[in-house]
Amino acid sequence: MKKIYIGFVVLLFFGVLGFDIYLHFENHEDAEKPSLEEGNLPTKKAEVSDVIRVDFPLIGSSVKSPLVVTGEARGNFFFEGNFPVKVLDVNGNTIASGLATSPSDWMTTEFIPFEVTLRFVKPAPPFGTLVLEKDNPSGIAKYDQELRIPVLFQ
């Protein structure tokens, strides 16, 4: 039940953030699009604090290819030393995917660093989502876990 509640809260948060970003761009069609360097985008570190923390990209970051995703996750988020990461366009189509890996020993329950580089072609419209998934080789749904980060493509 707690997982469903957390999932609903996360989904609601990203929905509101996505709508806010959409309204920002919709209401400023003639204005120059803001960039991360200008500090106009709502950015925040993404995390499911007890499982995974992403250092880059931040929520709402402006990203381009190649995208280097960094952070730290508990060892049990990995399977055989990696976990899947993908980039989705605004329609939910996968435009890039890869495996995050760690230079550290992943056979732990502690946080360990990870990194993955993803290459993609900028989609139109320039909105999307980065998805980091707990590797779940069992296929049992109750062990599924993911972190979704809304991004803007440069």
Overall description:
The chain is of the alpha+beta class and 154 residues long. It has one domain: Immunoglobulin-like. Helix content is 16%, strand content 40%. It is built from one helix and nine strands. It has one helix at residues 2-26, and strands at 44-48, 52-59, 62-63, 67-74, 82-89, 94-101, 111-118, 127-133, 146-153. The protein has a five-stranded mixed sheet with strand order 3-9-8-5-6, covered by helices on one side. A four-stranded antiparallel sheet has the order 1-2-4-7, with no helix packed on it. It starts with a helix and ends with a strand. The model is unreliable at 19-43 (pLDDT under 50).
Which ranges are low-confidence, i.e. pLDDT below 50, for 5 or more consecutive residues?
A: 19-43
Quickly count the domains: 1
Could you report the average pLDDT, rounded to the nearest whole number? 78
Shape: globular
Which CATH architecture? Sandwich
Rg from C-alpha positions?
Answer: 16 Å
Instruction: Describe the strand arrangement of the main beta sheet, using strand numbers.
Output: 3-9-8-5-6
Let me know the number of strands. Answer: 9
Helicity, in percent? 10-25%
List keywords for this structure.
single chain; 154 residues; alpha+beta; Immunoglobulin-like; five-stranded mixed sheet; four-stranded antiparallel sheet; 1 helix; 9 strands; globular
